[in-house]
From TrEMBL:
Any single Pfam family the record assigns to this protein: HMGL-like
UniProt protein name: hydroxymethylglutaryl-CoA lyase
Pathway(s) the chain acts in: Metabolic intermediate metabolism; (S)-3-hydroxy-3-methylglutaryl-CoA degradation; acetoacetate from (S)-3-hydroxy-3-methylglutaryl-CoA: step 1/1
Domain Pyruvate carboxyltransferase: 6-273
GO molecular function, one term: metal ion binding
InterPro entries from the UniProt entry: Aldolase_TIM, HMGL, PYR_CT
EC code: 4.1.3.4
GO biological process, one term: L-leucine catabolic process
Record organism: Massilia glaciei
Catalytic class of the enzyme: lyase
Record family assignment: Belongs to the HMG-CoA lyase family.
PROSITE patterns xref list: PYR_CT
Lyase found in the keyword field: yes
Length: 298
């Protein structure tokens, strides 16, 4: 049977907007985060403390974190690739920090400029500091289903990084399809392999929708007991270091699926549709959520 309730982590303000050609102002990002908080998300990825030379769109993260209205019960997360990022996240009062590695050596080099082993060594101090400061710690694993540079990624490579993230003390671990190539049975195989290394209830699925498979992969994940999913309002996003990858699965579409299945999310879909229309208007284009556009047209 499927889980009765899921946690949806809204990643649009980070994964979505990090990939926009035009930088979105801190004021617009702040309003987006606040609209999403009001919709009821228990977790919003709101910031990324990375090098502004690498990802200029995230340079205003501290401003955004200072300006948002924090809703009790919402965890605001920030990406932190190293101690410099951690210090910034701590100063901005993030509730959760995210260390992000990869199951692919080639992608690790392109994305964070170091090998997998070097990244884990770098994350050790971040993990320790997170514990000392009582922040939640999440680990994200890119290219768990395929890599734009090396192609296939073996199950054991994913399992190895899951184990390392577990040993660093991660509270939650994301299995990410960075380039949206996974299909349903493969998704189940990877999730089940990850679950041999880390408790299933704290494993999340992070699916980009490049090949239109994300909802099928989410359903396949539900079938094997995964109950945390990442999505982006209006399907915003991509990854600056994964050329051609499109956005995350749209939050509106995931909510429509979950609510149709009778699975509790705690999130108000209408308010998410409004937030999607808000950000799409700012970006000057139609949103890419099918459910969002259908509900808007009603
Ligand atoms: P590096 O060049 O190896 O780092 O970059 P460095 O330590 O040698 O520092 C070089 C410069 O960067 C220095 O500045 C540092 O101060 C600065 P300079 O002296 O040249 O003026 N710097 C920083 N500035 C601000 N904040 C920091 C920071 N760290 C160093 N935290 C580094 C290594 C990791 C920093 C770099 O490669 C980087 O920023 N990469 C970012 C990659 C990124 O953000 N990718 C997108 C997010 S991951 C993703 O989207 C995938 C995910 O969604 C899951 C999925 O779908 O797969 C999570
Ligand atoms: Mg991503």
């Amino acid at each position: 049977s499927l889980p009765g309730k899921v946690k949806i982590v809204e990643v649009g303000p980070r994964d979505g907007l990090q990939n926009e050609k035009e930088s979105v102002s801190a004021a617009v990002k702040t309003e987006l985060v606040d609209r999403l908080s009001r919709a009821g998300f228990a977790n919003i990825e709101a910031a990324s403390f990375v090098s502004p030379k690498w990802v200029p769109q995230m340079a205003t993260s501290a401003e955004v974190m200072a300006a948002i209205t924090r809703r009790a019960g919402t965890v605001y997360s920030a990406l932190t690739p190293n101690m410099q990022g951690f210090e910034a996240a701590l100063a901005s009062r993030a509730d959760e920090v995210v260390i992000f590695g990869s199951a692919s050596e080639a992608f690790s080099q392109r994305n964070i400029n170091c090998s997998i082993a070097e990244s884990i060594a770098r994350f050790e101090s971040v993990a320790k500091a997170a514990k000392q400061n009582r922040l939640r710690l999440r680990g994200s694993i890119s290219c768990a289903f395929g890599c734009p540079y090396q192609g296939e990624v073996p199950l054991d490579a994913v399992a190895d990084v899951v184990g390392r993230m577990r040993d660093l003390g991660c509270d939650e671990i994301d299995i990410a399809d960075t380039i949206g190539v996974a299909t349903a049975r493969q998704t189940q195989a990877v999730m089940l392999r990850a679950a041999r290394e880390f408790r299933l209830e704290s494993i999340s699925g992070h699916f980009h929708d490049t090949y239109g498979q994300a909802l099928a992969n989410i359903y396949a994940s539900l079938e094997v007991g995964v109950s945390i999913f990442h999505s982006s309002v209006s399907g915003l996003g991509g990854c600056p270091y994964a050329k051609g990858a499109t956005g995350n699965v749209a939050t509106e579409d995931v909510l429509y699926l979950m609510h149709g299945l009778g699975i509790e999310t705690g999130i108000n879909l209408d308010l998410v549709v409004d937030a999607g229309q808000f950000i799409s208007a700012h970006l000057g284009r139609k949103g890419s959520s099918r459910a969002g556009n259908a509900l808007e047209a009603k």
